[in-house]
Amino acid sequence: MTKISPEIEESMLRESILAVSADVSFASDHFPKYKLGPDNQILEEPKGDSDGPSLKEVVERETAQLSEQHKRLSVRDLASKFDKNLAAAAKLADEAKLREVASLEGHVLLKKLRDALEALRGRMAGRNKEDVEQAISMVEALAVKLTQKEGELIQEKFEVKKLANFLKQASEDAKKLVNQEKSFACAEIESARAVVQRFGEALEEQEKNPENSQKTQQEVEEFVEEVQEARRIKLMHQPTKVMDMEHELRALRAQIREKSIFSLKLQKELVTNKKAEENKSRVYGFHGSETLGSCLRLQPCSDNAPPLSKSSIQWYRVSLDGNQKDIISGATKTMYAPEPLDVGRILQAEVLTNGQKVIVTTSGPIGSATGLGGYVETLLRKSSSDFNVVISQINGQNHPSHSTHSLNVGKMRIKLCRGWITKSREIYSTSMLLCGARGDGNTAAKSAFWQPRKGVSYVLTFESERERNAAIMVARKHAFDCSVMLGGPDDQM
């Protein structure tokens, strides 16, 4: 028998352990679990997939991302913005065409004035002749200045038109680019959707047929690559080009706005110069704002004008085309406060003096007051509206009392009262009249003439011009609903 020493056995065991531990790498730190199947076969328990999410979760996540991509790649908002920019460009071009004003009248007037001064210079002598020559030189300088202003205005109009055309072309190009990008994005998104759908079908087939798992796994990897390609498509379609074009369009709109403001300023200067020339040849003119809530006053424009106190005056209301001319009953003073019926119409005053008739016309239609329409709509929503007034006249006679009364304008009638005492209460009828006061005075724009019935009339002074005009408009609307046209008097006030 051979005897083995303990030292040799221990060293051999140490060498075998070191060799095995150096060459072998264990996947886990515990023993695998087995089960015995039929015929004593060893079956390994299935391992859980702890490397990542399941394929079904990956498909659902990619589908959600593609849906979000489709929403983000939608360019309907951008297309609508470009349509608005194109419409704005067309509107600017049309406005530039409409602002083209003929400048021949100014030169004709200056030429007539110069010819008249030349004829007058031949008749004068001495100091008067020098004054006439000085006037001729001033007219010539004014003609040169007018020509320069017109040239500047034409140049500005040309630049505005050029910018509008450029903006229109840029909007069309941007719209084409958006449509092209939209078609490409939609096509690629539909392709990606088809890929995801096939991916889902393959997963369902894999769950039904476990035998074909290897083949299905290979198809899944191909589908994953296609989904990643869809992600790349999403990154490619970021709207950077469209954003750059939007910034450029904003800059162009700002330039057009500045040019338009400058062009309007030049136009105002031209109109002012033209009015100054016309004022030299006019005898009378209007002073005051040509809007609702103000007063227009006739005044002489030259020292040789006959005094208005010795003249006969009559105001008229003329349509924009000049075909209709209505007399304003009772408007025979030098002052007239426009009422709501005058909005959109031209006012004309005829002055008869020394057998000659002089016609003075507003430069344009009477404009409405700011915010009056919204205020009237608010009042019309109520069943009745109350206004504080002071009675200035009763039946054409001045009323000495200045106590405050209440004018209640309802849907069926108008009532004037003070506390419990009722002055007048009448329903809307053909004998009722209501209009702006057509007398002279500082409160003409705040006063209204009201005739409840024949034989009884009042001149009422409101707290403000806005209250007076709103009361007239509300009353006329309620009267119209009752088939009554509420207007002014047929005879003079």
TrEMBL record:
What region holds the Stomatal closure-related actin-binding protein PH domain? 385-491
The Stomatal closure-related actin-binding protein Ig domain covers 285-381
Q: Where is the Stomatal closure-related actin-binding protein actin-binding domain?
A: 55-97
Q: Which UniProt keywords apply?
A: Coiled coil
What the entry lists under Gene3D superfamilies is as follows: 2.30.29.140, 2.60.40.2700, ATP synthase delta/epsilon subunit, C-terminal domain
Q: Which Pfam families match?
A: SCAB-ABD (PF16711), SCAB-Ig (PF16709), SCAB-PH (PF17684), SCAB_CC (PF16712)
Q: What Gene Ontology molecular-function terms does this entry list? A: actin binding
Which ranges does the record mark as transmembrane?
Answer: none
GO terms classed as biological process: actin filament organization; regulation of stomatal movement
Where does the Stomatal closure-related actin-binding protein coiled-coil domain lie?
Answer: 101-270
Region of interest called Disordered, as start-end residue ranges on this chain: 35-56
Show the coiled coil region(s). Answer: 160-233
| The protein's name | Stomatal closure-related actin-binding protein coiled-coil domain-containing protein
| Organism encoding this protein | Corchorus capsularis (Jute)
Give the classification, highest ranks.
Eukaryota, Viridiplantae, Streptophyta, Embryophyta, Tracheophyta
